Amino acid sequence: MASINQQNESMFSFDNQDMMVFILVMSLHGLQMMFAELLPSFSLGGLELELGPFLFISYTLVFLFRSFWACLAVPVGGIIFGEILIGDFSAFGAVESLLMITISLYIATTMINDPEDVKWLAVLAVVAKGLEELSAQFIDVGKFYVGVESLEAIEWLPETIWAVEIAGATTQVIIAGIIFGALPMTYFYPRMRGKIEPLLGMEPVEGHPSGKRINNDTLKGLLAWVVLTPIAFVFEAFSETSGAFLVFEPEFVEIYGEVFLAVPIVAAAIVAYAVVYYRQQDTA
Fold first, then answer.
1. In this structure, what are the phi and psi dihedrals at residue 117, rounded to the nearest 5 degrees?
2. Tens digit of pLDDT for each residue in 193-213?
3. Which residue segment(s) compose the domain that 154 sits in?
4. In DSSP terms, which residues pair with 247 in a beta bridge?
5. Model confidence at 281: pLDDT above 90
6. How far apart are CA 180 and CA 229, in angstroms?
7. What is the rounded CA–CA span in Å between residue 246 and residue 92?
8. C-alpha 119: how far from its chain's center?
9. So what's the pLDDT on residue 47?
10. Tens of pLDDT along 46-62?
11. Which UniProt keyword terms apply here (predicted)?
12. HEC secondary structure over 164-205
């Protein structure tokens, strides 16, 4: 029991190393998001499909460091580099990703009993994306039923909103969660384990001390997911009805074109490099 409590403390503690991990994951997630924005999208049967995001980068880093702060850094990176720096930010709208991406990734990390079992980690990457999309589906359908969002399906058949949402969520899990997430992660994760941690002065993280894939932390995480989903819905509904309240929308990309995406890309790259450089100088 003591070892489990110690492991929980390490997952939620926030020291200098945790700060380095947070900044590194935040910046690299933002970097991959901005590169994905440069890729073309296409339509298939009425669904808008995109090449990316390259979530294998985020999954690899989160599973390598396996802390709450690494999970939180993923949505924070998306908000800072993918919304604020390009001038398209809504405080209420950001809450959904902040809550649901974080808790979805956290649940997946609690299920890591063997950090060298790459196949199981790939399953957990899909689980994390699936939980994120499931909550997003409930929130989007809820917004329609409470009247804060118009129906994108057939107007005379409201039930088709479920079909549209399920199709969209399934597509996201397949493309972002599997093709650009779990599959490439199985290549990069074992090659980075034991190599990237020393750059931040850390040892590779071990599996959950209980040795179980489904443990008390997993159940607590699932309970938190259930509680946080309606909370995220409330904030998302407010974002649809609050107008210009707590928003930052100069829309730099609309004004200057896609060339402005270089700003968050360069900023994220500089931050990521600065973290590693600072740590190396600090330990030299």
1. -85, 90
2. 999 999 888 899 988 888 899
3. 2-283
4. 90
5. no
6. 25
7. 7
8. 20
9. 62
10. 566 677 789 999 999 99
11. Membrane, Transmembrane, Transmembrane helix
12. HHHHHHHHHHHHHHHHHHHHHHHHHHHHHCCCCHHHHCCCCC
